[in-house]
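Can anyone check this?
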Amino acid sequence: MKIPNSFVWILSFVLAAHGLPASAANGEDSKLQDPKLQDRIENAIQRLASNQFDVRQLATKELQHVGATAIPALEKAAKSSDREMRTRSLDVLRTQLRGSDPKVAAEASATLKRLASDSSHPSGRLAATILEDRVEKVRAALNQRAMVMKQLQGRQALIFQPQRMAFRPPVPLPRGIRGGGNATITVSDNRHGRLRIQVVNGKVKLLEVQVPNGEKKTYNDLNRVKTEHPQLFKRYETIARRNNYPLPK
C-alpha cells in the first residue's frame, strides 16, 4: 500500500520532533518500493527453477533471508506451473511460518491460508498440508507440556516436602589458641580505645588498654578488662569465641 505524500510529510515532521529518523514513517513500504531489493527478489524467484541444484539452494536461502518483503513474490511463484519453483516457494513460506519473527510468521500464515483456499491447484493442497502439519506440531508440543506439568505436579510433594531434622547443639570446643600457643590480638574502637592482648603458650601474659586520650593501662587479668572496659572486652570476646582464644572462666 502506497502512503500519500501529505501523510508521509506530516508523520516525518512528528518523528523529527521526537528525534526519530524520517525514514521510520514508511519503513516497511520503503522496502516494498525499493527497486533494487525487488529486482533481487525477482531474480531469486527465477533462479528457483534453475537446472543447477546449487543455484536453486542459494536462491532459496536468499529468499529466506529477505523476510516478509519477499512474501508477495513467493505467493505469486507458488502458483507457477513450474513444479520446482512452486515447491521451493512454499518451502520458503514454511520456513518463515516457523521462524522466530511473529510478524513474518503471521504474514506467511495468511499467505498459506489464501493458497490453501484453492484446493484444485497443487500449491493449494501443499499449503494446506503445511498448515495442518504446523497445527499438529503445536498440538503435540502442548500435549507434551501438559504431560510434563502433570508429572511435576505429581512429584511436587516429594520434591518440595520439608524434612524434619533433629536439633543437635554445637559441640563446645576447648578454649585455647588454635594450632599453637602464641598470639597477639588487637581490637579497637574509636570511642573506647584499643585493647591488645598477648598470649604465650595458651595463657594471657599481657593486656594493654590505650584509651582515646592516649593514656595506656596494663592489666594481668581479663576479668579486670571486662569490668573496666566492657565495650572493648565485648569486641574481643566475639573474636575469641570464633577463634578459641582465652576467655575468663
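Reply from J.R.: I decoded it. The two ends are 93 Å apart (CA to CA).
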